[in-house]
């Protein structure tokens, strides 16, 4: 069979979909795919319902409704002091589409793009689909720090961009100023674009500071940021996201967006614009997720697992090897879902050429009852090995 694109023939079903399907098949608690079962502001749901029945249900402008582009610009001015206008913003169908159109707009065949791993699994195929070659720069467990020398060494003559994800999925790390400055200096020295995937920017627990990449000296002009209302409001199925960049770069990405989805549902955009305009829901949302993080950390510790405490996101990493479990991540994940009744994410699919196979990712953005059921199943799973 050689009629279909070989890229997709070679790619498996995404690990998130695979594990969610397995959870449904085995009636298991799903601590795999990253979606919360609490935490959204009800007012935004009511606003969306009003917009569906009374607002616009027809094609909106391709770059996004003016109210949302303005609100995104204002939101980042208010939170980070960034000097933005609606011309910096392109609304997309989730950050996933933002990343896809950025790759299409940025990468020409033969270009190289640096990806720090472990990484959100969409980056690699998106770079390849645009004709580019992903270059893996590993972050080593348990600290997952950016190593400047390793980064520098990975930059070749065809390198166009670095994809940075901060706060970081799957580890929940926030990169510190020294690490981010290393990325900035390498980007400046080699004239690279930095695609800064900051979808987790508000899912923070207050222990460490999040530094938006565009805040670093001279970086605003070479940064393309991705944001996601799905993450900010704990409504992952909404798929409303955006990219923020210098207006010239944003306009080129907007051309790729016209021929990808063209536009994003206007009623959901309007509801997101309302929600993003005020900030009083952020602290209670963070408190809720901090407490579920702590509950999971305690439960894992009691069950004998070694988990790495995250400073943000919905996720934490468990080091199976450090927990005394010799099985590789895929074996552990398969037996956990099939025999113990809990779905987890094996982390080896988050690498490119050189996977580490001793870690899993857990989603803790769940109600106490879900967490407790998942933890009980993980305790059972630990006894298999
Ligand atoms: N980037 C990262 C790092 C993510 O974790 C996710 C979702 N898991 C996305 C992008 C996609 O965001 P969206 O749902 O808005 O498409």
Automatic annotation (TrEMBL):
Alphabetical UniProt keywords: Aminotransferase, Pyridoxal phosphate, Transferase
InterPro entries to which the protein is assigned, alphabetical: Aminotransferase_I/II_large (IPR004839), Kynurenine-oxoglutarate_AT (IPR051326), PyrdxlP-dep_Trfase (IPR015424), PyrdxlP-dep_Trfase_major (IPR015421), PyrdxlP-dep_Trfase_small (IPR015422)
Segments forming domain Aminotransferase class I/classII large: 27-377
GO CC term (a single one): cytoplasm
Signal sequence region: none
Top-level taxon of origin: Bacteria
Molecular function (Gene Ontology), one example: kynurenine-oxoglutarate transaminase activity
Co-factor requirement: pyridoxal 5'-phosphate
One Pfam family named in its UniProt record: Aminotran_1_2
Family stated for the protein in its record: Belongs to the class-I pyridoxal-phosphate-dependent aminotransferase family.
Protein name per UniProt: Aspartate/methionine/tyrosine aminotransferase
Organism: Sphingomicrobium lutaoense
